[in-house]
Amino acid sequence: MxxxxxxxxxxxxxxxxxxxxxADEGPSADPDVTIRQEGDKTIQEYRQNGFxxxxxxxxxxxxxxxxxxxxxxxxxxxxxxxxxxxxxxxEIFKW
Length: 95
Description:
By secondary structure, this protein is an alpha+beta fold. It has one helix at 2-24, and strands at residues 32-38, 41-48, 51-59, 65-69, 77-79. It has a domain at 32-79: Single Sheet (S-adenosyl-L-methionine-dependent methyltransferases). Helices cover 24% and strands 34% of the residues.
């Protein structure tokens, strides 16, 4: 019976680091920010657990502005400083 207890203890000790790594990969409170250049603009995409919720556009000449989701489910974005402004989202071609 003593060897069984020892094997059980060794198994539990060897499993502890794996459980700790799995706990580290949980949802984070900090957003993931992706920064990219598009023409003369810098675009920062803010994601929380893979969900895109805001885009900051910084033009080379001009004032930065944010695009936020119009509602939580669709990909319709509106300017946070001009919520009545419509942003076209036409699909011209689809392959």
